[in-house]
Amino acid sequence: MVDDIKGLGKVALDAMTGLKGSPKVESEGDFSKALLDAISKVNTAQQDAEKAVQGLTEGKKAVHETMIALEKAGVSFQLMQQVRNKIVSAYEDIMRTQV
Question: Total structural domains in the chain?
Fold first, then answer.
């Protein structure tokens, strides 16, 4: 179970390599730091998408650039939701385990 959680963090970080400044994990004990960094990167992608939409309405951005920013933000947010769901599920499994 613990190995699954460690692997989940690595999978999530590997999947986010398309985002600017992807988080780096220096050791396995830095999972919480890596998770916070990943959340920060998702937030940055969301902000970039908002700026792209604003740029589109002002005529400064092309439609395809805006759509790419929106899709990148959407996919990264969905990934973070799935990571959260897996973490909550793992926590619930641990809490159900009888000692």
Answer: 1
